[in-house]
Write a structure and sequence with these properties.
The protein has nine helices and no strands. By secondary structure, it is an all-alpha fold. Belongs to the mitochondrial carrier (TC 2.A.29) family.
């Protein structure tokens, strides 16, 4: 049996198609990364307060929990106004690749499932699955950066100008030197497991809202619709997955400078935390996190949609 070689026109067509796919994926990744960086920078002061509250740093109220105002005061006294953006550099280095992967992979998985199911209107469970798979992929790729960001943002300076961790590169090198390479992956299991429901709920909520309120029946622009639905999805995801997020932060900080906590693993951390502090410990920082999540995810979806529309017009 003789197999004929493709003609030069056919080869050219395939090359052109491959270039178009590559260009489209690259554009989506850049749009996702930039959108994530904008959203993270705007909301970093709230992120810093949330993480310090989770890790138990700073001035505490009579209940034993750090107060939001007390944490702001501690940061300003010990680190100055720029302390509110401590960890933002590590955030941006992590967020760009993470959101690049999350948004572009979500688009890919949605397109894949649409072809399989032969429908453009995916059911909410399928939107959940697409988002969850995207989140797990991004987490696996960027985890050491997330750990470094957690250590920078999750510790207060000893005094003004004397930071425990000064930057992402220094944090990674210090962690490897003092704790070994494996320390860069502390807490990765709950992070990956948490990414499935978190991103799944976030994108699933957006997908469900888009089915309930079709674009053709709306006078609101696509970016604004995405912003509203994205904010709702972020709040829902944050509320449901917050206890898991607290556990992974505690695991990330164990063994770091100024932290004597040691856990044998995920469930040991859960047991020790519950036995020592009770169930409420898993929800420290939930209020500020809820306030943070709405604008953070809303801005992510808004700028991703806006930048994608803009880049489509350039092609």
């Amino acid at each position: 049996m003789t197999v004929s070689a493709p003609s030069s026109n056919e080869l050219q067509r395939r090359v052109t198609a491959a270039k178009m796919v590559t260009t489209d994926v690259t554009r989506r990744m850049i749009c996702g990364g930039v959108a994530g960086m904008i959203a993270k920078t705007v909301t970093n002061p709230l992120e810093r307060i949330k993480m310090l509250s989770q890790t138990g740093e700073g001035t505490k109220k009579a209940s034993g929990r750090p107060s939001i105002l007390g944490l702001y005061r501690d940061i300003l006294q010990k680190e100055g106004i720029l302390g509110l953006w401590a960890g933002n550099g590590a955030n941006l280095l992590r967020v760009f690749p993470a959101k690049s992967v999350v948004f572009s992979c979500n688009d890919y998985y949605r397109a894949l499932f649409s072809r399989i199911l032969q429908t453009d209107q995916l059911p909410a469970p399928v939107s959940f699955l697409a988002g969850g798979l995207s989140g797990m992929t991004a987490t696996a790729v960027t985890y050491p950066l997330d750990l470094a960001r957690g250590r920078i943002s999750g510790k207060l300076a000893v005094a003004k100008g004397q930071k425990v961790y000064r930057g992402i590169v220094q944090t990674i090198l210090l962690t490897v030197r003092e704790e070994g390479v494996a320390a860069l992956f502390k807490g990765i299991t709950p992070t990956i497991l948490g990414a499935l429901p978190y991103e799944g709920i976030k994108f699933g909520t957006v997908g469900a809202m888009e089915r309930l309120f079709p674009e053709e029946n709306s006078s609101v622009s696509t970016p604004v619709r995405k912003m509203i639905f994205g904010g709702m999805g972020g709040v829902m995801a944050g509320l449901i997955t917050y206890p898991n997020d607290t556990v992974r932060r505690l695991l990330q900080l164990q063994g770091s400078r100024g932290n004597s906590s040691t856990y044998a693993g995920y469930w040991d951390c859960v047991r020790q935390t519950y036995r020592t502090h009770g169930i409420s410990r898993f929800y420290h920082g939930l209020t500020i996190n809820t306030i943070r999540m709405a604008p953070n995810t809303a801005l992510q979806f808004y700028f991703y949609s806006l930048l994608k529309q803009w880049s489509d017009g350039l092609v």
